[in-house]
Specification:
The complex is a heterodimer of chains A (about 190) and B (about 190).
Chain A: H1 12-16, H2 22-32, H3 36-56, H4 62-73, H5 81-110, E1 124-130, H6 136-145, E2 148-152, E3 160-164, H7 173-181, E4 186-191
Chain B: H1 9-16, H2 20-42, H3 45-62, H4 72-99, H5 104-111, H6 114-118, H7 123-133, H8 136-147, H9 152-159, H10 163-183
Helix pairs in contact in B: 1-2, 2-3, 2-4, 3-4, 4-9, 8-10, 9-10
Classes of the chains: A alpha+beta (about 190), B mainly alpha (about 190).
Chain lengths: ~190, ~190
């Protein structure tokens, strides 16, 4: 098979996604006009594109994400790496202290023993951001009401991971409704 | 690389001058794409939200460094790629520490029975299964071609690799996909 009749296999995915330049696009068009095998391949790649687009379509945290970003945009940028590292260390220690206190308090109030790592294997995990003005007491009451515990976070965007106890995958709608309705405490909630 | 015409390039000029409203436009236009790209590699929505936050904050602070050598989307995904790699390195270090204390029985249980888990799945689920079975690099190039709809020079720019590598990687990803579908007995899943 000479070069002129070689299948432009490597170009076909980019022909399907519409990103080839005019010359390459024409080259593929000329070839597929006379090549049933490449037309079949194009049909298959189009189907694959549809599947990938369905699977990979995820919506970013919209308004909540913007508000968090806007808050940080208004903070002064870090001056030096050294001062940033000091601030990060201080912030990390603060988060560890606060989170440890919360988690210890929640564990003691439940009076039962949860093996380390158990939260990774059972229950439904949600991503939650609490309002900056929400108090620890309000958050504690809300988590108690839906039988949940904090298992991770917060990340850079201020999102915590919480686990719903004794809930199956299809059984999280009530706690989700409760969280969404608690607008004075919860800013954003989504299922993981 | 020659300058590329992008109708959104002037948004970045305005952002460099401190235009918050224009930053909002960039966020609205590109947040989903950046989030989906990060989620494809990181799997956890909270991590993807953090990367989105970090990318957009960098855009706000460093919009003046955009030199018009790529489309705005490509520039943003290039920043996201580096943020994702930073986070993956952190996760690897964390996982190595956790693995030192891991229960080998739990590890065995976690890897057992993928066939059983997929029993009774529809062809669409098999397609998803085979996509997820691809290596990280193959799955990433599938995402960049079919979800982000980028050209191969743009993908090479984001991943910092030769254009030939991108085309070959995509070709191999496509072949491995077909091989997986044939192995599970639904080779026609994409053509039905």
């Amino acid at each position: 098979m000479n070069e002129q009749h070689a299948h432009p296999e490597e170009l076909l995915p980019f022909y399907v996604n519409g990103s080839l330049d005019a010359d390459e696009h024409q080259q593929v068009e000329n070839h597929v006009a006379a090549c049933g095998q490449c037309r079949d391949e194009i049909a298959l790649l189009q189907s694959l594109q549809t599947r990938v687009a369905e699977i990979d379509a995820h919506t970013a945290p919209g308004e909540f994400g913007w508000q968090r970003l806007q808050r940080d945009m208004r903070k002064p940028a870090r001056q030096t790496r050294r001062s940033w590292m000091k601030m990060a260390l201080a912030a990390s220690l603060l988060v560890v202290v606060v989170q440890s206190g919360w988690l210890l308090q929640l564990s003691l109030s439940q009076n039962d023993y949860i093996p380390a790592g158990a939260h990774l294997q059972q229950g439904v995990i949600l991503q939650v951001a609490f309002r900056p003005q929400a108090t620890a007491s309000q958050i504690h009451q809300l988590l108690d009401a839906i039988d949940a515990e904090i298992v991770g976070g917060p990340g850079a965007a201020g999102v915590y991971r919480i686990r719903l106890h004794n809930r199956s995958e299809g059984d999280a709608s009530q706690p989700l409704q409760r969280l969404n309705a608690s607008t004075e405490v919860v800013e954003y909630v989504v299922r993981e | 690389m020659a300058a590329v015409s992008d109708p959104h390039a002037h948004w970045l000029e305005a952002i460099a001058a401190g235009d918050e409203a224009m930053m909002r436009r960039v966020y609205d236009a590109y947040a989903d794409a950046v989030y989906a790209f990060a989620l494809r590699r990181l799997a956890q929505p909270a991590d993807a939200a953090d990367v989105l936050h970090e990318v957009m904050l960098e855009v706000w602070r460093k919009a003046g460094s955009y030199q018009g050598r790529s489309r705005v989307r490509t520039w943003l995904l290039g920043i996201a790629h580096h943020k994702v790699l930073d986070r993956l390195r952190l996760q690897t270090r964390r996982r190595e520490r956790e693995d030192e204390n891991a229960d080998p029985c739990e590890q065995l249980a976690a890897t057992a029975g993928p066939q059983a888990a997929m029993a009774g799945a529809s062809d669409a689920r098999w397609v998803r299964h085979c996509l997820e079975k691809l290596s990280t690099t193959h799955r990433q190039v599938m995402h960049l071609v079919f979800f982000q709809e980028l050209s191969y020079p743009e993908i090479a720019d984001i991943l910092q690799c030769p254009v030939g590598t991108v085309k070959t990687r995509m070709l191999h990803a496509r072949r491995r996909m077909q091989h997986c579908l044939e192995t599970v007995g639904v080779a026609d899943a994409l053509t039905e």
